[in-house]
Amino acid sequence: MVDRLANSEANTRRISIVENCFGAAGQPLTIPGRVLIGEGVLTKLCRKKPKARQFFLFNDILVYGNIVIQKKKYNKQHIIPLENVTIDSIQDEGDLRNGWLIKTPTKSFAVYAATATEKSEWMNHINKCVSDLLSKSGKTPSNEHAAVWVPDSEAAVCMRCQKAKFTPVNRRHHCRKCGFVVCGPCSEKRFLLPSQSSKPVRICDFCYELLSAGEVTACQSARSDSYSPSPKSALNDVSDDDDDEDSSD
């Protein structure tokens, strides 16, 4: 069906509408062979709080942005190549239901659908697109992905030293390797993570020691073994960078 739609007038028109909704700030999306598979609103778990985002699934990329005017205008366009994507289901917990992780080498995050049916459809379509792309290219699935950041609301104190309390003065930072919320003194070092940045990025002391010793996989397991998201409300809004923008902190 994808091949049949690739050069159809209806598909070209749908993609053009998406381009127009992002305006001049968005990147062009129309290329030969690209097909718009589906679209919808998903709740993205951002570092400060869950936020509604508009998602568009194409046969080769996943695009999302902030909703300015529903169905008419979006901004802060993000484009994720599907070849690099892996997804994992998340168990329902409290108000956070029907969710899954979208993991890539550069950025990983959790999203939630309104219903279990929507979740199933999204995951099935994404997996099918990824499978088709890898089959055509002969590539293997990516086994490296960026850590999913722990939301600010999950940490009243530094998740490494377990002592420093966060205040408007003592601000939160995120380790780019494990995703933990850490204080400044526990994350003063930088390390080059080529999949995430061309420059050294902030990481916690724990991950720095492991990376310096060549124990790369231990950093990833350190997070997954010790953190499980919970549906807490935000404690306070004292983050040091915006939840939807890359930053040096």
Automatic annotation (TrEMBL):
Q: How does it sit in the membrane?
A: Peripheral membrane protein
Predominant location: membrane
Query: PH domain spans which residues?
Result: 35-131
Location of this chain's protein in the cell: Early endosome membrane; Endoplasmic reticulum
Q: Name one Pfam family in it.
A: PH
Sorted keywords for this record are: Endoplasmic reticulum, Endosome, Membrane, Metal-binding, Protein transport, Transport, Zinc, Zinc-finger
Q: Which InterPro entries match?
A: PH-like_dom_sf (IPR011993), PH_domain (IPR001849), PH_domain-containing_F (IPR051765), PH_Phafin (IPR037871), PLEKHF2_FYVE (IPR047966), Znf_FYVE (IPR000306), Znf_FYVE-rel (IPR017455), Znf_FYVE_PHD (IPR011011)
Q: Where is this region: Disordered?
A: 220-249
Q: Which SMART domains does the UniProt entry name for this protein?
A: FYVE (SM00064), PH (SM00233)
Which Gene Ontology terms describe the biological processes this protein takes part in? endosome organization; endosome to lysosome transport; protein transport
Which intervals hold domain FYVE-type? Answer: 152-212
**Single Gene Ontology MF annotation:** phosphatidylinositol binding
Listed GO CC annotations: early endosome membrane; endoplasmic reticulum
User: Is the keyword Membrane in the record?
Assistant: yes
Functional description taken from the UniProt entry: May play a role in early endosome fusion upstream of RAB5, hence regulating receptor trafficking and fluid-phase transport. Enhances cellular sensitivity to TNF-induced apoptosis.
Record protein name field: Pleckstrin homology domain-containing family F member 2
- Provide the gene name from the record: Plekhf2
